[in-house]
Design brief:
about 300 residues, alpha/beta, Rossmann fold, 2 domains, 4-stranded antiparallel beta sheet, about 30% strand
């Protein structure tokens, strides 16, 4: 059986009158990459803070490697990149990495991490002079330096350009390929699609969905038909359409076969036909549609 590295069991947490988590139960098994999604105020940050030992539940139990996450020894094999990382502004990048590495018995060599995360040229720069994207990459390096078994990434690519984002994605894939376990939250749903095998959708302090990426997407009974064409007539089987600058149309429909037949009968001059399931973003919006107006938690 798969070893459970993190567990929330019947967890409830309040902040005054606000119910942040409502009897949530969730396990993360070794070797998984779990994408944690939810609208603002859904309870994602509370779940993460409980796992990091920064908060305690009002009811229920949180376990990290089988023990209480508030006990430092139980966090030894945990790496974390929080949304906001406070770095000593006058220390240099290499100094910060070396300092954190000194607290681990077998750290990843500093030069290796600097190279893998594109920070070699910034090694001698004070952290206070780094750009936002460079600070995010350094925070990921700090999360990895102790060779963790479980990596928690909370909005890891905020402020990164496209190239840096893909660099980080590859680093996460490499970590997973080496046997690592990952929990990642992100507002970039394409990031979850690129990394996660399992998706957990949280809203109003409750788990709405916990399933594979494909299963979550399939919950939305809509497909995307993409074609290159000029102007399109009114089409009965199109629920929504998007025109793109390159002449491609994205047509959203509940019956892609009927839509293609309709295009042919209407004598539309189209080419480069593609049919795909709903994206994770479309599934997420549909799943959380009834909770987006609730008070934040």
């Amino acid at each position: 059986m798969t070893e459970t590295l993190a567990r929330w069991q019947g967890v409830t947490r309040r902040y005054g009158d606000v119910l942040a988590l409502d009897d949530v139960s969730l396990d993360v098994g070794a070797g998984q990459v779990v994408g944690l999604l939810g609208p603002n105020g859904a309870g994602k940050s509370t779940l993460i803070n409980l796992l990091l030992g920064l908060r305690r539940p009002d009811a229920g139990r949180v376990e990290l490697f089988g023990g209480d996450p508030r006990v430092p020894a139980n966090r030894r094999l945990l790496g974390c990149t929080p949304q906001e990382t406070a770095l000593p502004a006058t220390l240099k990048v290499r100094e910060v990495l070396d300092f954190v590495a000194g607290h681990h018995p077998d750290p990843v060599p500093t030069d290796q991490l600097l190279d893998e995360l594109g920070l070699t040229e910034q090694a001698g720069r004070q952290t206070g002079g780094l750009s936002g994207g460079q600070r995010r990459r350094l925070s990921v390096a700090l999360a990895l330096v102790g060779r963790p078994r479980l990596l928690v990434l909370d909005e890891p690519t905020t402020g990164l350009d496209v190239d840096a984002r893909h660099l980080l994605w590859q680093k996460v894939r490499d970590f997973h390929a080496g046997g690592g376990t990952v929990v990642v939250t992100s507002h970039y749903l394409e990031e979850i699609e690129a990394l996660a095998e399992r998706v957990v959708v949280v809203a109003s302090g409750r788990v709405l969905v916990d399933d594979s990426l494909d299963a979550v997407r399939s919950r939305v009974q809509q497909r995307r038909v993409s074609v290159r064409a000029g102007a399109l007539p009114d089409l009965a089987h199109v629920a929504r359409s998007e025109a793109h600058a390159d002449g491609r149309w994205s047509l959203f429909t509940a019956d892609s076969d009927a839509l293609v037949r309709e295009l042919v009968r209407a004598d539309v001059d189209f080419r480069d036909l593609e049919v795909a399931p709903a994206s994770l973003e479309e599934a997420f919006l549909a799943l959380t549609a009834t909770t987006r107006t609730e008070a934040p938690a």
